Amino acid sequence: MARRKSRIIAFQALYSWDVNAAPLDELLEFSWVDSAVLDRMGDENLLFTKLLISGTIENIEEIDSVIKKHLTAKWSFDRISKVDLAVLRVSVYPLLYQKDMPSSIIIDEAIDISKEFGSDDSFKFINGVLDSVKNAYRSE
Q1: Distances from the Cα of 71 to the Cαs of 15, 30, 44, 78, in angstroms?
Q2: pLDDT reading at 109 higher than 70
Q3: Yes or no: is domain 2-137 CATH 1.10.940.10?
Q4: Which of 5, 110, 115, 117 has the smallest number of Cβ neighbours within 10 A?
């Protein structure tokens, strides 16, 4: 459950980074997250959260390029909602750079987050893009 919370916080941070131009150092301070939530997460999960946020932002050009390559013909990058884009970004990062993490867990978590925060059909779109990325970059 703590890893799920890590992914949700990372997703929220990436959304804020994109929409509000929140600086990375401010995002990594977690002053915007309820302190009780942070206390329950523990140091290891906070480090995981920071890695997801900073790793995604540091590699954003490659991540966005990969997302663009795996969109269907009817979708343009600019058409992706900010919520869906944040979910995709925080999920493509581990697919590309955290090979020890099972892709099925990454994709399942992304689908769950998109069901909670996205539109009614977001999870279908997210699943399609991430499955395509997984097939191109992983040999599981």
Answers
A1: 20, 32, 34, 11
A2: yes
A3: yes
A4: 115
